[in-house]
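> forwarded from #structure-qc
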C-alpha cells in the first residue's frame, strides 16, 4: 500500500490472515505430514514471491514517486502496531506463546536434567495463548511421564513428572505408576528414577497429577488444573 499497490496489498493481507487461521486450525485437527507441509509451506512461498513482485514495483515507481519521511514513519508505525496488537500477527503470536526460560536449581530430575542446566518451559507444546481469550487454548495434553513446569497452589513454579491424566485413578507402588489398575511402564525417553509409594488418588476431570521428585523418590504429588500448567520442560539448545 505504501507504493500504492492497494488491491494487491489487500489481497496479500487476506492471504496471510487465512494462512494464520489455517495454522491454528491445524493444531486441533490430526492431518497428515504432507498436508501440514502444504498448509505451512504454500503461504510462505506466496508471501516470499509477493516481495519479489513488490521489488519490481519499487524499481519502476521509486524514481517517479517521492515518499516523505513522515509518510514512511506513519506506515512503519501502523505496521508495527498491527504486529504488536493483532492476535494473528507473528510478533504478537510469538510474544504470547514464547517459552519460559529458567535455570535448574537442583538435581531432582537427574540424569535427564541437572543443577545449572538452562531449560525452557514450552507453552506451545500443549496450548496457545491469544489476547482474545483470557485462558489458554489447549490443542494437546501432556503424555504420562512428561516433564512439565507448573504453578502450585501457593504460586511457586515447580518441575515434575506427569503421572496421572484427567479422570484417572492413580497409585504409586514401589515406584511403579498404576493408572486405573493398569501398570504403566516409564519410557526410556524420560530416564528419571522413580521410587516410593503414593496412595490411590483420583485426578480431576480437568487436571493432571504431577509428582515432584527428590533424590529419585516421590517428594509430593500435586493435582494441578490444566490452567496451572506452564509448559513442557526441554533444553534451550
Amino acid at each position: 500500500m505504501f507504493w500504492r499497490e492497494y488491491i494487491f496489498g489487500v489481497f496479500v493481507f487476506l492471504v496471510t490472515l487465512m494462512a494464520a487461521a489455517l495454522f491454528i486450525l491445524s493444531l486441533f485437527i490430526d492431518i497428515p505430514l504432507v498436508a501440514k507441509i502444504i498448509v505451512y509451506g504454500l503461504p510462505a512461498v506466496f508471501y516470499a514471491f509477493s516481495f519479489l513482485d513488490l521489488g519490481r514495483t519499487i524499481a519502476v515507481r521509486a524514481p517517479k514517486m517521492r515518499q516523505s519521511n513522515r509518510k514512511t514513519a506513519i506506515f512503519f508505525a501502523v505496521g508495527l502496531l498491527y504486529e504488536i496488537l493483532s492476535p494473528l500477527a507473528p510478533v504478537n503470536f510469538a510474544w504470547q506463546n514464547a517459552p519460559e526460560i529458567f535455570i535448574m536449581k537442583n538435581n531432582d530430575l537427574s540424569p535427564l536434567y541437572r543443577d545449572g542446566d538452562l531449560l525452557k518451559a514450552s507453552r506451545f507444546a500443549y496450548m496457545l495463548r491469544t489476547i482474545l481469550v483470557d485462558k489458554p487454548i489447549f490443542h494437546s495434553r501432556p503424555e504420562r511421564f512428561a516433564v512439565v513446569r507448573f504453578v502450585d497452589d501457593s504460586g511457586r513454579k515447580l518441575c515434575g513428572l506427569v503421572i496421572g491424566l484427567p479422570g484417572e485413578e492413580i497409585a504409586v507402588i514401589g515406584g511403579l505408576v498404576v493408572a486405573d489398575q493398569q501398570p504403566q511402564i516409564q519410557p526410556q525417553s524420560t530416564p528419571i528414577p522413580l521410587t516410593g509409594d503414593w496412595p490411590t488418588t483420583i485426578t480431576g476431570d480437568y487436571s493432571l497429577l504431577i509428582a515432584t521428585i527428590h533424590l529419585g523418590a516421590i517428594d509430593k504429588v500435586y493435582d494441578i488444573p490444566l490452567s496451572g500448567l506452564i509448559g513442557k520442560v526441554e533444553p534451550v539448545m
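QC bot note: The chain has a mean pLDDT of 87. The chain is about 30% helix and 30% strand.
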